[in-house]
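Pipeline run #58 for the internal structure catalog. This entry was flagged by the ingest filter as a single-chain record with no existing model, so it goes straight to prediction. Upstream metadata was stripped on purpose; only the residue string is passed forward. Reviewer on rotation: M.T. Logging verbosity set to normal.
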Amino acid sequence: MKDESALKALTFAPGVVRTDATDEVIWRYDDLFHAAGHRAVVTSVKRSVLGQLQTIERYAVAKQIIQPSECLDLSMPMDWRGQKVLRWQVVWSTLLHLGVIISPPVPAAVLMDYWRDGINKKGVTITPSAHLAGRAFDIGGGKNGAEDEFAVCQAAAKEISQVSQVLLERENNCVHTTIKGSVLI
């Protein structure tokens, strides 16, 4: 792992689990953020399946889809519109329907209308986040949203061959970067 004290413009939020693959790109991003005179925070890198499920829970509580005392698990079934599904899948699909971009903890079909890039993803199976493989990271936006960070990340992606995707997650107030070679479970 690289020494994070060498970063000039980026910092890591407490508890972020880093990987060598993301460190390489984050340090390149740091140079570009520094050159742009912009500071930002890396809010997430590697997550476990449980961590991804807990992230879904946090957004669901914030959107009042579930109560703060409710916990999701991967195996809790429920009847939903005449079919047996997993409860977390309904919660996750509701988030997508409301515009919160978030990947599932395991491959799952979207249960509700979810429009992305002009296509309704209802019924489409979405793969887990590259965060689970430690090949993605999020950079948090400031009070004005993540627009400033997105502009720097887009420019960085053009210069850094390892970057496969940069996605502005307005609802999450962050910019998600995926690194090529992601291994999805």
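catalog note: Residues 49-126 form one domain.
catalog note: The chain has a mean pLDDT of 92.
status: ready for reviewer M.T.
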